[in-house]
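Input record (one chain):
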Amino acid sequence: IKSFFGIARMPFDPDYLTLTNQQQEIFNIINIHSKQGGLSVLAGEPGSGKTVVLKALQKQLLLLKSLKHKE
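The corresponding structure, as predicted from the sequence alone:
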């Protein structure tokens, strides 16, 4: 993919994600629901940022998991 499109890194690389204000708000809501044991569904038009929010949530969960293992 990188060579075909001439890009330096893979799309949706969690190390380079920047959330818009709306994506940050959705991220915060889903994060709160997950901590309370809730279920969330994220739906939207193509290109609306669903994957970006998902990758940001995955990154946070992996970080939290690694911190718990260090305790």
